[in-house]
Fold this sequence. Notes:
Number of strands: 9
Distance between the termini: 7 Å
Order of helices and strands: EHEHEHEHEHEEHEE
Oligomer: single chain
Amino acid sequence: MSKLRLGVLASGRGSNLQSIMDQAAAGKINAAVAVVISDKKDAYALERARMAGIPAGHINYSDFPSKDAYERSIVELLQQHGVELVCLAGYMRIVGKVLLAAFPNRVMNIHPALLPSFPGLHGQEQAWAYGVKFSGCTVHFVDEGMDTGPIILQAVVPVYDEDTADDLSARILEQEHKIYPEAIRLYAEGRLRIEGRKVYVSKINNRR
């Protein structure tokens, strides 16, 4: 079976990108990162990709007259590299209709909270400030809303009384590095099915 070709969009340090690359290199997921794209020229995610021998590029949002034009440039680069699944890994822009139309039900994201609670920026800090007793992270398919797409996997972590927001963020990040590659593995094996708002996981590998 051929490896699923991934395109990763990132804006920052790329720790989730690293976990995906590591799992792929170890053969734990039948996938390979084909290209990494960032809207930030100094994003460390680009350096991680280059050190792994993966093509990496910066596409500057301000160089384009519109969001649609910016996304068309991204789509073109993804298609040049034969990308089949797009993975957002700390990508700090809301994905628009151009990218979603090019990759329908083929864009994933990881969010550091238990959606639908605490969407948007700084989900960990939101949860900690609210005083929840449990938090976690969510992998979901992306739609045009902010963290509103169908949920694939979630992981729960406890919130302790003595926690700082940074403590909670670190505990959540450990789980992000586990469930994001797992969601990609399930997709690569053809085991995810979307029906309305729900994502069903089959026991049978349906990918040919």
